[in-house]
Amino acid sequence: MPQSPHPSPHAPPRLLVSDHVAGRISLLDLPDGTERAELRHRHLAEHAGFLALPDGLTACVDDRAGELLVLDPYGPGAGHPFVRRRIPVAVPAEHLAADPRGRHLAVTTGLGRNEEAWTGLLTAVDLDAPDGAVAVRVRGRTGEPGVTVLGGGPSPLVVLRHREPGELLAHRHRDLMRSAPACPPAAPVGRIALPDDDGHGDAHDPLTRRVFAAAGSGVHRARREGDGLVGETPLPWSADGRSGGRGHYLRLDPVRRMLWSCVRGGPGDPGQWPTWSNDAWWHQLDTGVTGRLDLGPGLVFRLAVTARHIAYTRVHPDGDELVLLTAPPVAGSRPEIAARLPLPAMSGAPRPGGTPWDGVQRRAVAASPGGGLVAVSRGGHGEVHVFDADRADLLTTLTVPTPLDDGGHLALLTPGDGAEADPVGR
What residue ranges do the domains of the chain occupy? Predict the structure, then answer.
């Protein structure tokens, strides 16, 4: 794929705001909210999210059109189109990942709006395919597999994380791209059985070629050796004298080389979500130090990485908040809570006794590892609150033309921020 010129280091941060229900993606300058571009009739695969690519590009999947979109957020205003590529992929998209170079991608499929698993299609994408074979679809196990794409060797390895039964399956990306038409079955070149059937959450460290999978018993690890995977000792959720619960989300912090999650504990009944406990869980990849920190009760899920903080949103009937953790990049230092900033209530917020994720409003959170801004959506109100994490202060509230039902989805970009060092869609 022709390379995009690097965004000017003097360009302002930009925010991608997706309303996947209404079908709109907005591109805004920060902090003033000037709209630089819009895409209509585009329904983001919210669970797969946005994927940072090298040269300031971003990938996502339109779940209704069945297309992988390669976006150039700094193209508008610089003489380049906002949509750089459109590539057919299988949907409903569940997870999206790239190899460290950003050339080889993989998209898995999930349940979508269906109650049972019905498709096991996997799409392999080569953005620079010399023979024009840009995307190939193959058939694997049905379910909702996570995916990472490990670099090294003659071909990247596409690693699928499956549930029921839990296992990691490795495919050579090169073999997938050579598959015949009509979605043939794809046989893995390696597999590792996982002791849990409840895996949820994946991360990839390009430096060590390790893949991490969150499950009930801990964070399971495997590293690439040749064209295979070698399992390693799992990381426990217990730390700092705190135990119980498990993380349902996992991501790499490329600034401090740490893994982050939120460990949820409490009753399994979704109606009792206000009593759930939530701990920030972290693991320093180079020192092996692991820790936990209490965030408070309620609903906490995804997180965002800034240059100097980690940002979580917490939803609770007594009031929602943005929780900022300091995460100094010094060996041996431990994260601490820096600020708890109130968030305006959502009129359609989850209520005690009801599910916190079906038919209710939610919040999306985004940040850039190269800056100090944090964006938080207010589902149902068409608003995005922009905070300065370094000052622990609300900068502005932006209004978009659609309500952002279900919370929408956000991606915050800063020129040269190195976000592509986390090569898993968020």
Answer: 12-40+236-425, 42-199+226-234
